[in-house]
Write a structure and sequence with these properties.
This protein has 126 residues and is α+β, with helices and mostly antiparallel strands. It has two helices and five strands. It has a five-stranded mixed beta barrel. Strand 4 and strand 5 form a beta hairpin. The structure holds copper (II) ion. The site of copper (II) ion (CU) has 4 residues, from strand 3.
Length: 126
């Protein structure tokens, strides 16, 4: 009798000690994960918006070709770390005509551009 009582008491203690912290930990874990997921998604979408709408990149290069009719310039630019681009020849759209007038063939330029859909649009040059 005595032995059995002690055993069941021990079993109850084990259950109490074992289950309470476990359920508490699970509850907190679940809440933490939900909080993290929500924050993660918000940050992700904010980052994506920022990148596509406002993030500008800086490049340095030499003007290879100016196409005033199309509003485009071809530049042999150096590496652009913010885009993970190596040096290359490529064509950029230019935001407006006044800006386009600053591009002269073989001129070295420092420019800023933004990614707009599938185009890279130069927003400033010096
Ligand atoms: Cu490029």
């Amino acid at each position: 009798m005595k032995k059995a009582n002690r055993f069941s008491l021990a079993a109850v203690l084990v259950l109490l000690v074992g289950t309470i912290p476990l359920s508490r930990a699970q509850g907190m874990g679940g809440m933490d994960m939900m909080g993290k997921d929500k924050k993660g998604m918000e940050m992700k979408s904010m980052g994506a918006d920022k990148k596509s709408e406002t993030q500008s990149h800086k490049g340095v290069g030499t003007v290879k070709k100016v196409d005033p009719a199309a509003g485009k310039v071809t530049i042999a630019h150096g590496p652009i770390p913010t885009m993970k681009w190596p040096a290359m020849n490529m064509t950029f759209a230019v935001k407006d005509k006044a800006l386009l007038g600053k591009f002269l063939q073989d001129k070295k330029v420092e420019f800023e551009f933004v990614e707009q859909g599938s185009d890279y649009v130069i927003t400033s040059v010096k």
